[in-house]
Structures are given as structure tokens and as C-alpha cells.
Amino acid sequence: MGDLVHTLPALTDAARAIPDIRFDWVVDESFAEVPAWHPRVERVFPSAFRRWNKNWLRSLKSGEPQQFLKQLRRRKYDRIIDVQGEFKSALAALLARGPRRGYDSRAAHEWGAHLLYQKHFFVPKGIHSIQRMRQLLSQVLDYEYDPDQVDYGLEQSVVGPPPLNLPQPYLVFVHSTSWPSKVWPEHYWQTLTERAIAAGFTVVLPWGDEAERHRSIKIAAQQKDAVVLPQLSISEKASIIARAQATVGLDTGLSHIAAAFAVPSVTLYGATDPLLVGATGKHQVHLASEFECIKCHEKNCSYEKPAAFKPACFIELTPEKVWQTLQELLTTKTDWALTEKALARV
User: Fold this and answer.
1) Domains of the chain with bracketed CATH
2) How many angstroms from the chain centroid is the CA of residue 333?
């Protein structure tokens, strides 16, 4: 989901340079809500390559792949751009009708994906994901943009009103993530929750799967001002996040959604590199570990020396340090807002 959010500023750049441009977007069915948030996206084609790949015969009998292909090929496009550079996304580009564009062999995420494009573009790998996609679209569509201005093109209204009323002010703690190596320890979340509630905040805990729901319940245990959300859609979670006082989260999709809506956020990094994938936008703070094996980019912690817990790179990112950083962020954000109001009066 983070990759989808990272693509949005590139669409905004293109819309500024080419006022009448419109996009259709092929996306995994799990995250099909996200592209539709951007005002220049007309159609979203949910794909189920992962699910279909588990049993192609059953999938073909269901008719889903055939229907997907029929919808995808209904229109001929001026450009088909693969911003992911993976085999799966390159295959989707190949199935659509129109001239295909993408990264060259040095820039593609998975080598060989570039063979399915008709024209290739070089974008350095050692820069942030957002800037990679912005560079690619600007080269393919031949326009200039300001790399220092990041605009996701989103308004709160695109995700609708919150699905439930929450006591104000509230913080959202995003503890769910797909990699075990990015999970901040449960007892740290419990301590941080106690600190936040003692300071007068309600703590809101979203979750995705059953294991994350159980973790939410444990974090909220015996805390009357901690709210474990019910099962919600991505847009419903985004609606709650967009109206939060702030968030604390991990390197995961919901944290990038917070950044896209300019919600003050402290995001914790250990196994991944914030310079490449960090939550980007106004009021975003990256709290990165200085442990010896940070930025390993491994899904599971492989640290072999004695450690209090794993992932070991989070040991030094204590609840006290996170809470202090969050307080400083909220103070800075308040000062910034007051200054902005004063300037508006002038």
C-alpha cells in the first residue's frame, strides 16, 4: 500500500504540467480503494494476480482473469507506464493496449521486467521511492517539476466522514506491519499508550488481520481511553487517521497515508531506510535506530548476538524517546499553525 501512496505525487506533478491528463490504474485488489482518492484517476482495475496464481485452473473457470483482461483492453492508451518495475506490473502493462514505458535494466526493481517495455528510462535506485516515480513520469511525459514540493493531491473529503465518533483529541498508533523485522515490541506500545492517555489523549488502534487485532487488544488492556477499532476498510481507516491529532507508526501503509494527509507523525525505522521509503510530507519525523545492523532490509531479524528482544534494532527506540519526540513534534506543529494564522491576518 505504501508504494501506491508514494505514486500519488507523481500524478499531481503530471496534472500540473498537463491540465487535461487522466489516469487509469491497475492495482492489487486488496488496495483498490487508494488510487481512487486522487482526482485525476478515472478508472481503477483491481487485479488478483496473487490469488489467481495459487490456482490458475480454478481462476480461469471462474472467469475473473478473462473479465479483467476484457476491461483492461477496452481502451487504447496514449501511454502505459509501469512505475513499479516488477514482473507482475510489467505483465499488466503488456496486457493493456498502448505504447509501454518503464525503467531501464539498471533501474527496474526486478531485472528483466524492462524487457516488456518498448521504451526505457534511467532513474537512480538510491533515491526515495516517491522521487523515483516522479522522475519516471516526468521523463515519459516530458515535463518539469519541483522536486522539493511534494503534493499528494488529497483532501479529507475523498475518504468520507469517520465511520464512528471518537473522543477528541486522539492519537492513532499504527502497530501493524507485514514484516516481523519492523514490529515495535508490544510492551513498548503499552508503555507509550499509558503515557499518551495520562497526557489527556485517546489512543486509537487500527488493525488488519486477526493477529494484529489481538495485539491491539493487548496494547489497550486495562486502558479505558484506548480504542480498538472494529474491522474497517482502508478508506475508513484513512478517514480516522486524517483527523487525528498525530500518529505514531511503523514503516507501513497506514503511516504513509498519514503523511499523505499531512497528519503530524513519528515513524519508527530499523530494518528499512527512511531515506528510501520514509513517510514524506509536512510534519513528518523519522525516528531511526543507530543499531549496528540497521537498514538490513530483511523481513525477519537475523541478529545473532544476545539481545533483550528481536528485532534488536528497536531496543534503543524506547517509549520514552518516542514520547518525547512526539511531544516536540506537536509543539512545533502548534507553533507553525499559529504563525500561519498570523501571516494570514497580515
Assistant:
1) 2-141 (3.40.50.2000), 164-345 (3.40.50.2000)
2) 22
